Amino acid sequence: MIRLLRILFACSVLAAAVSSALAQISFATAIDLAEKSNPKVLSAQAEVDKATAVIQQLRDAYVPNVVFGIGVGPTPYGFPLGTPSLFNITSQSLVFSYAQRDYLRSAHAAFDASVLALKDARQGVAEDTALTYLALNHDLQRHAALSEQQTFADHLVTIVQERLDAGQDTPIGLTQARLSAAQTRLALLRAEDDTASDQTHLARLIGLPPQGLGTSADSIPAFNAPPTQEASELPLSPAILSSYAAAHAKRETAFAESRYLWRPQILFSGQYNRFATFNNYQEYYLHFQQNNAAVGVQITIPLYDVQHAAKAREAAADASHAEHEADVARDQFFDGRQRVLHTAAELSARAEVATLDQQLAQQNLDILLVQLKSGSGNLSGVQMTPKDEQLSRIAEREKYLAVLDADFQLDQTRINLMRQTGELDAWIAAAAHTDPSLTVKP
Known about the structure:
Elements: H1 2-20, E1 23-25, H2 27-37, H3 39-59, E2 65-70, E3 85-97, H4 98-165, H5 171-206, E4 213-215, H6 238-258, E5 265-275, E6 291-300, H7 306-374, H8 386-421, H9 424-434
Parallel strand pairs: 1-4
Antiparallel strand pairs: 2-3, 3-5, 5-6
């Protein structure tokens, strides 16, 4: 029984360790899962399917349809009323129309707009997922650094307390050490909250449970150098191109509406009827025929239609409105991209300053550790103490946290800039090529 209890205890400890471990998911896998299951992408795909169906509907207007109908009823008194057919088959199709070609061009432009909107939706989801993935990776790195800083701060409190007991320090020094430890503990709690929040958001994007969800820093692709062209020289985003394509579709529709009057429209029509004999139609007609068929074309020429003319003016105004809205969105896009270009350059310089500051703190810490190990070599000078070591370690971790924050802000701006310059898809594709495994790694 004792051996069995030991085995059960070991299994429970192992299960708890496995459940508490992070399940690392690669960057490319997260992007792929998000793009396949996000409602925005699925909604945009439905719009593409709808636009495809509209094109097929306009093309099928030239294909004759076939309708089958039955109408049976006796005539007990008087002259037969209604259609005397047992059943009938009718067929109709469009042969020629000036406006039909314009409607078809409008449908193709609407299809192009839906495809571009789908591309923009995928890029939006990819951008959100990439930012969340980097945020979670930043949270995990920050949590690890704060945990180390918390250890150094607690050790500093112990050292200062011992020095105070030995009369080598002051109560103010102890209070400062305890304040530093409390501030680090508060920052650690905030980092845990940020980690849980980003885990939840990433899990909702990719459709996986948030518990224990982790990142793989090696799967994040390297960032390319920012473009050197002016904002107006870079390509437009899919959202802007979709707006112009939608405006072009409305312009084609307005052109089709304006070509309605004074232009012929030719329709094909065919009909077959099988007349009934129990309605006594043969008693009223000299040459009664049960089988009746007719085939022909119908030509209509609209001469005067005030309502349709007003509808054409409405379509033209709608097209102009869409074109002006696309121009406004284009100008706003150019302004925003120009600001992002300048922000990326500023954040890059700030990240470099933070990195050099952290390197300087690390070099000072290395020098201090050498002095503590071998002595300063100057007996008359100030000797380094373990308190100085912990203070240097805390300062180095503080500089490292500043580097993490600066790099994360720079990466956020880079991803936003890549989406606005059209380089986001290539960057994500590079992540898929550099990632040999697209599975979740426990």
